[in-house]
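Subject: design request, 232 residues
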């Protein structure tokens, strides 16, 4: 009885193989078209997805050549694993397509941060009591700049990790501008350009969770910082 059921199921699956092939071709064409669009932005397909696409022709040939239910079932089990990878990444390829614009945006932001830092550094070059904070700010920009460089390189081979690098930079921009704005406020206070605002200093100290330390000569306190249904 079981053998007869398997024989009938095998016959039905073989009859549906052409429709299955068409669906596989459609999905592969979509991924290939996305690959071309990503390549224009120097972004490569994830290696896992590339491997899955490479396996499809051989597994399809095995399905067509299967002579019994067991052979077909074995090939289909492997094909299911491949299709799961393709289906998973098909829904995420548009996210990778956005990576190109994200890389441009994050590079622009890092450039803006570096220019702002250099301007502030020039203003405070005669303030030795603030050089430690300036070095900390410069190091922050350096770390983010290296992450952008790494992201650009990874985009060609490991786009998912490149996305993670970009997100890390975006996550740290707020911290940079918070530190920068406070240093800028200190610079203005030292030059007498603005009147000290105790509430602003107090709020800044709460955000950084550090103590206000009096710097000698500063004059103020400063804060330290479904395809398979066709076959079954």
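Subject: RE: design request

Done. Sequence follows.
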């Amino acid at each position: 009885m079981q053998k007869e059921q398997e024989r009938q199921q095998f016959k039905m699956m073989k009859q549906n193989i052409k429709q299955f092939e068409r669906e596989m071709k459609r999905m592969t064409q979509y991924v290939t078209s996305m690959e071309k669009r990503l390549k224009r932005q120097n972004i490569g397909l994830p290696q896992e997805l590339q491997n899955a696409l490479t396996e499809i022709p051989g597994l399809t040939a095995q399905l067509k050549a299967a002579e019994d239910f067991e052979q077909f079932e074995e090939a289909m089990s492997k094909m299911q694993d491949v299709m799961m990878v393709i289906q998973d990444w098909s829904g995420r390829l548009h996210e990778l397509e956005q990576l190109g614009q994200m890389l441009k945006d994050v590079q622009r932001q890092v450039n803006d941060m570096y220019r702002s830092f250099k301007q502030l550094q020039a203003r405070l070059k005669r303030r030795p009591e603030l050089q430690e904070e300036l070095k900390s700010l410069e190091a922050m920009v350096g770390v983010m700049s290296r992450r952008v460089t790494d992201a650009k390189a990874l985009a060609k081979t490991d786009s998912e990790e490149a996305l993670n690098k970009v997100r890390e930079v975006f996550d740290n921009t707020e911290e940079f501008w918070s530190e920068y704005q406070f240093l800028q406020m200190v610079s203005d206070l030292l030059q007498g350009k603005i009147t000290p605002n105790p509430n602003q200093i107090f709020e800044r100290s709460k955000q950084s969770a550090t103590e206000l330390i009096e710097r000698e000569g500063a004059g103020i306190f400063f804060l330290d910082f479904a395809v398979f249904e066709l076959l079954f």
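Residues 204-232 have pLDDT under 50 and may be disordered.
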